[in-house]
Input
Amino acid sequence: MKKYASLQTRIMAMAVCMVFSIKLTAQTYSQSTGTNTVTGQTYASTTADLSAVKVTGGTFTMNTCSVTKSGNTSSSDNSSFYGLNAAVLSSGSSSTINMTGGTISTSASGANAIVAYGGSVNVSDVTITCTGQYSRGIHATNGGTINATNLTATTSGANSSVIATDRGGGTVTVTGGSFNVSGTDAAVLYSTGTVSASGITGGSTKGEIAVVEGSNSMTITNNCTLTSGSSSRGILILQSGSGDATGKIGTFNMIGGSLQSTESNAPLFEVVTNSTGNITLNGVSTTIASGILMKVDYNTRWSTNGATGNLYLNGSTTYSGNIVADSYSNASVNILTGATLTGAINNANTAKLVALTLDATSTWTLTANSYINGLISNPGISGTSVANITGNGYHIYYTESTNAALGGLTYSLVGGGYLMPVSGTVLAEVGAESFDWSLSSNPAKDELQMKLVLNNASTVNASIVDLFGRTIRQHSFGSLSQGAHLLKLNENDLPAGVYLLSIQVTNEQNVVTRMKKILKN
Output
């Protein structure tokens, strides 16, 4: 009997301990006033819409604590806008949460790890893991403030950016740490408020590096290393029209560090949807698989109007990539303070308006023909030459009506090529010591014949360009010896009209390009 009683007592004691242990593990925390501090505690919620830690007033400090959250939200919008179902929630302007060390893990939909809904959160040296959809890492709304230092944070659900703000905006400041995202439609940084990052590394496997929505901003400093695997774009500036952010002027500033876009069709920057994107890079290293530095366009996903992209390139850095815009959109390219752009601007001549500004310390190296139908401001233009643009045999076509100061003249570029009116004015011939040429069948019907006299053995290439500067046809005559040559170009399938014929002659002495008008009957 005593043995039975003893065994029964022990079983009861064990049961009590197990119940106590379960209660301890599953406990949630809520606070509306006062100042409290805990160390090494575990908080958990498995109930839908119930946060594991919720502070609506006062200050709560957690040291090396563990927080877990499961149980799906009943409303993904309420999770994003108000912090419903968050693991850790600071709600209201009089609430502050401090967390140092420890972990936060969520495994439900709409389970953001940390939300500051009007409140404040200061968090450092915490590991965050979120696996559900609509489950962000650190997330401020309604004017909330988050200061984060040395976090290791990952999200894997769709629509789960790891550093974010949402409706009503907020201020998120991140210093150091690692931030990685693998879900679709999920960015490393998403701003409907003010987001700043310093010295972080991060990447999104399927989404953007950064998104700025509405009249909000993002500032990235102190050698951040950021990568996007999105097939759409690396960084997006937009006004979605959802009501989550007001205004139409988004700002992205980055000093130092590196940006990489790995997908072959994705521009590094895209500005869309009736927005103005002000993008400033200063000493930033860029790697762009698509070769498109900035794209400005009407994107039918958001279905409003075109956009304006204002790109400012600064610092003693070479930025490689093209600038493209569609017929609804405007772009301005500003190359300043020692920067170099290597690429083409508006190569397809599709933009509604494109403007160019260089200062005296900066350069542009062409990789294809470019078209500027807005204002060109460049102190490197002097006489009939341009000192700070390297043409490489390509041309810049400008619109006379927006560049009266250029006088409709043609200017030679360094290394061959011209800055010339888009109207197709015949170029002044230069480099006469290299070759002479004449057309023996102009107007032409089916075949264009030209006589070419070379003073030196040279490689000869020809191209036919329309009056909008678009290359219609290219032909290589290969290496030709010194002396006279009769060259022929087949034009039988070329539509009737006026074109420019460009001949480029390359030899050991120099590279010379000349153009003449031709008429196809």
Remarks:
- Residues 208-220+236-425 form one domain.
- Confidence is low (pLDDT under 50) at residues 1-5, 9-25, 424-435.
- The longest strand covers residues 58-69.
